[in-house]
Q: What sequence folds into this?
């Protein structure tokens, strides 16, 4: 199940505020401060630490079965998308990735596969990565910009026989163009990193 995307961005506070207005909650904030990584999780808010020189490694926000993360970057850079899966499917997908010559980084909680299109695919087997696995608020599909053809074919082969939910758009850059949200009450908008969020109700 498609559930996740991640950006590096200079618009950390703005991105958090944007998704909070859409009903997402902050589940964690991890930042480097005074030479070490520390937690700035809720109930702390930005008024508690805004003046400190914190470099945020990750801010995680959740709503329903959607999980969005972002970290401090000098410019907006799309990093990866994520799928919730199980151990059996994980093994199948990793084997298909290795057969295709893609780099696989296995971890205790997450596995990353590097595509040939300047972004990664995360495979997550822990269902607690989302607040509600069967929520009507979910990522239906992602449209990814790429400079070369073949992205959809590569992701579909990687995830086969499971649905990838990925579409591609040939442009001059590598970026996440848009996310289709299944919730019928969701209205179209654009996040601070240029990602268009579209309701499945208005996508046709």
A:
């Amino acid at each position: 199940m498609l559930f996740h995307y991640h950006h590096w961005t200079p618009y950390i506070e703005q991105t958090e505020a944007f998704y909070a207005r859409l009903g997402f909650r902050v589940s964690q904030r991890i930042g480097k401060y005074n030479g070490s990584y520390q937690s700035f999780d809720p109930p702390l808010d930005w008024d508690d630490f805004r003046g400190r020189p914190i470099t945020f490694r990750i801010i995680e926000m959740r709503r329903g079965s959607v999980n969005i993360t972002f970290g401090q970057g000098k410019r907006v850079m799309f990093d990866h998308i994520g799928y919730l899966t199980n151990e059996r499917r994980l093994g199948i997908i990793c084997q298909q990735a290795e057969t295709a010559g893609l780099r696989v980084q296995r971890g205790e909680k997450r596995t990353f596969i590097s595509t040939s299109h300047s972004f990664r695919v995360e495979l997550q087997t822990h269902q607690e990565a989302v607040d509600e696995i069967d929520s009507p608020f979910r990522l239906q599909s992602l449209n990814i910009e790429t400079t070369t053809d073949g992205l959809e074919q590569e992701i579909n082969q990687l995830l086969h026989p499971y649905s990838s939910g990925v579409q591609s758009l040939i442009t001059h850059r590598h970026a996440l163009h848009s996310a289709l949200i299944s919730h019928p009450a969701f209205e179209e908008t654009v996040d601070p990193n240029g990602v268009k969020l579209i309701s499945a109700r208005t996508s046709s």
